[in-house]
Amino acid sequence: MADKKREPDFVLPDGTEIVFDFYKITRREYASIFSREQTDEEEAAVMAKPAGIDPNVLMDLPLPVWRKFAEVFFKRASDPIDEDPKN
After folding, report:
1. Are 46 and 58 in contact (CB under 8 A)?
2. CB 12 within 8 A of CB 57
3. What is the pLDDT of residue 1?
4. What distance in Å separates the CA atoms of residue 72 and residue 76, rounded to the nearest whole number?
5. Which pLDDT tens digit goes with each residue over 49-73?
6. Nearest to 6 by CA among 74, 53, 76
7. Taking a C-beta distance cutoff of 8 angstroms, is the pair 41, 55 a contact?
8. Which residues contact 49 (CB under 8 A, 6 or more apart)?
9. 21: helix, coil or strand?
10. How far is residue 30's CA from residue 66's CA, in Å, rounded to a whole number?
């Protein structure tokens, strides 16, 4: 059986296609995004992990692109779980 390739969840301005893999972060890491004590850099590091990109890429995005990235990130994070790569 051929592997199913998902459509990208988001495409960066440079053409990099992102398919979020939320198995790359823990529940604790996800919850830390909402902490007031967390720095912007720490938040970017957590959000970059499931995207498979360097956190600095997120920090350097134009604000409208960052906002769209964050919108898609949180939508995908709350979507029903459709597959488990371990099964």
Report:
1. no
2. yes
3. 45
4. 6
5. 999 999 999 999 999 999 999 999 9
6. 76
7. yes
8. 24, 25, 29
9. coil
10. 18
Q: Is the per-residue pLDDT at 46 higher than 60?
A: yes
Judge whether 40 and 59 are in contact, CB under 8 Å. yes
The per-residue pLDDT for 22 is 95
On the 0-12 / 13-18 / 19+ scale of CB atoms within 10 A, 21 is: middle
Rounded Cα–Cα distance for residues 4 and 36 (Å):
39
Single-letter residue type at 64: P
In the block, which residue shows the tokens 């967390």? Answer: 38
The string of DSSP letters for 37-74 reads TS-HHHHHHHHHHHHTS-HHHHHTS-HHHHHHHHHHHH
Output the six-digit token pair for 73: 């990130």
Residue 32 is which amino acid?
S
pLDDT at 87 over 50: no
